[in-house]
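Example 3.2
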Amino acid sequence: MAVKGDSINVMLVDDHEVVLEGLIRILEKQGGIKIVSVARSAEEALEKIGRFPPDVIIVDIQLPGMNGIELIRRVKSEFPQIEAVTLTVFDDEQFAKQAIKAGAIGYVIKDAAKEELVKAVWAAAKGESLISTSVARKLIEEISEPAGRKKKKEEEYEGLSQRELDVIKLMARGYNNRQIADILFISEHTVKVHIRNIFRKIGVPDRTNAVLWAIERGLVFRDKESIKPDKPPV
């Protein structure tokens, strides 16, 4: 159980001011829920979370810089007593799977009834899970999906080279081109070339859509230790 007192302390993480204001209004109308802090990025959330410790953190997946799924993974690693609820526009079982793998206990769609979010907060505070009905249905359908179709989905990213897979994984974890170059011991120009090739191969126009593509296919946390840098110059 996350909450120990009479009220549930909640942190909100979303980069849209209007969404934050709406969430505050919805949740603070409920007796027993207190908003202790808000953050507009994962980095800001990590900086505040130690100073304003919540019982439950409500996180949007699509954040500037580090994405919400990686934030949840970091929070659960450093503060395992805090429960995480994902609040997102993505009505997609792949996003839900990645959020749950990262440690989220709840997954709520933004256009769901506000009562569902309140229920998810109370459930999370008790250590119980609540997943939006439409997403839960898709998760059940995927579990019952024929093995051959699952195999085809798993192979959808194979058009990318191993180095391109390394680059898109790092992009999805929030690293910029300079940081990716340093991690892989390659030049920033080479990173840019890889990114252009990635966009062309997977048919996306920009970095945000490439990251979403990677999250959909489970690449963000798959084979996390498989990224092998080139040997540094001696």
